[in-house]
Amino acid sequence: MVDRSEDVGARFSAYVEALVDVIGHKDRAGPLRDYCTGLLMAGERKSVEPLAAVTAPGRVSAQHQSLLHFVGEGRWSDERVLAKVRELVLPQMEQHGAIEAWILDDTGLPKKGQHSVGVARQYCGQLGKQDNCQVAVSLSLANGYASLPVAYRLYLPKEWSDDAARLRKAGVPEDVAFQTKHEIALDHLRWACTAGLPRAVVLMDAGYGNNTQLRAQIGALGLSYIADILSNTTVWDPGKEEPSPKAWSGRGRRPTIPQGDDEHRPVAVKHLALGLPEQDWHAIEWREGTNHTLSSRFARLRVRVARGDYKRRTQRRAEEWLMIEWPQGQQEPTKYWLSTLPADTSLEQMVKLAKLRWRIERDYLELKQEVGLGHFEGRGWRGFHHHATLCIAAYGFLICERGALPPSAPATAKAFPQSAVPGRSRPRGAAAAA
Predict the structure, then answer these.
(1) CA distances (Å), 296 to each of 206, 230, 275, 301, in order?
(2) Helix, strand, coil % (nearest 5) of the chain?
(3) Strands 201-204, 101-110: pairing kind
(4) Distance between CA 407 and CA 199 in Å, rounded?
(5) Model pLDDT for residues 126-162, shown as the tens digit of each residue
(6) Of 176, 222, 344, 373, which sits 20 to 30 A from 403 (CA to CA)?
(7) Are 19 and 392 in contact (CB under 8 A)?
(8) Averaged pLDDT score across all residues of the chain
(9) Rg of the Cα atoms in the chain
(10) Dist CA 139 CA 321 (whole Å)
């Protein structure tokens, strides 16, 4: 009988050795291997002290100092490590189909206190409310098999970016200035285009999709998108012509600004959806869920976005798709999207692509629950991003193993069993310490 644990161990050693090649000094090889091993082992907490306890039970203090220096102070490149992770993982994903989507999103990491870099009272998706947290903006590449984060950057609220002393104390690089989440997201997309990553449709939730300028800039990069929008987003009624500039009198400058009136005003997408005839709605299935096939009712039509700037624009916006979901039995539609996919894209394909955004939710769930993305307890910029990079590297290994391991238990428990932790060890943040 084949010992599968030996197979996994051999594959993991080869995976980490490839990362060692880009991380610099050979003396970083041990901490890199131990840190990634600890992230993949079963355990409630994946901050530095618990990782030291499970990877070196006989010398916890020395291991703690080694890992702490490696992740908090080590001057190795996140970009080079993530590039190697892409090199190792994307071919495994593409064996199951081409990359279909670039997914933009952000995630909140609950935090106590005020000293961890970027921490502030802001919306935290994990908690579903405003609370003390850090927020990071990410870009993931996805297909129907898996998704992999390829860019990850901490958002700094204004109260941080305007406080030079606070920035210096947290080790924030001098060239890092305030950027909105939308600007960070756009930087991710520009970088991905420059890096030559396999192009695909950009997917985003309403927090990004409702930003008209961001959508326009995505189009300027030559990318198409499927963007969640709010129900009050305004478009021009396809059944009516948009307003035109008033007639030129022959004197002065020729009018260029449209003149709206009661017959020529934008309408909310919800208003359009409620007025669509029954025959415009189609039942679409998009994937197999845990217990049943996922399906709902959808309709779509070609529209021009109006927003609030229509009185200032001198040119009409290009037509794009408005897609609407109205599940059977619901009193009103539940989801709206705008999309610049080609006009000949089928409704079935558009629905499947739009619904692929669930992958990012799976990403964050597994990154947090399986490999401890939100468990880092350091306060500095470098440590925050190094920990995230190593979590993504560990998650990449799990993606590679997904086809080799049966789905009967958590991936980390299947790959790496829990190591014995000395009874005297009480790492900060661990359940035992609590």
Answers:
(1) 20, 19, 19, 17
(2) 40, 20, 40
(3) parallel
(4) 30
(5) 888 989 999 999 999 999 999 999 999 999 999 999 9
(6) 373
(7) no
(8) 87
(9) 25
(10) 23
Q: What are phi and psi of 146, to 5 degrees?
A: -165, 175
Give the helix/strand (H/E) hosting 257.
Answer: none
Beta bridge partners of 121: 132
Structure tokens at 335: 């989801």
The C-alpha atoms of residue 376 and residue 373 are separated, in whole angstroms, by 7
Tens digits of residue pLDDT in 264-316 = 678 999 999 999 999 999 999 999 877 889 999 999 999 999 866 555 555 67
Tell me: pLDDT of 428 over 50.
no
pTM of the predicted structure, to 2 decimals: 0.88
Exposure b/e, 236-265, CB count within 10 A at least 16 = b: bbeeeebbeeeeeeeeeeeeeebeeeeebe
For residues 434 and 418, give the distance between their C-alpha atoms in angstroms, rounded to a whole number: 20
CA–CA distances in Å: residue 75 to residues 33, 79, 171, 366, 382: 17, 12, 12, 27, 8
* pLDDT for res 126: 84
* Residue recorded with tokens 């993606």: 399
Bridge-based pairing state of the strands 101-110 and 225-229: unpaired
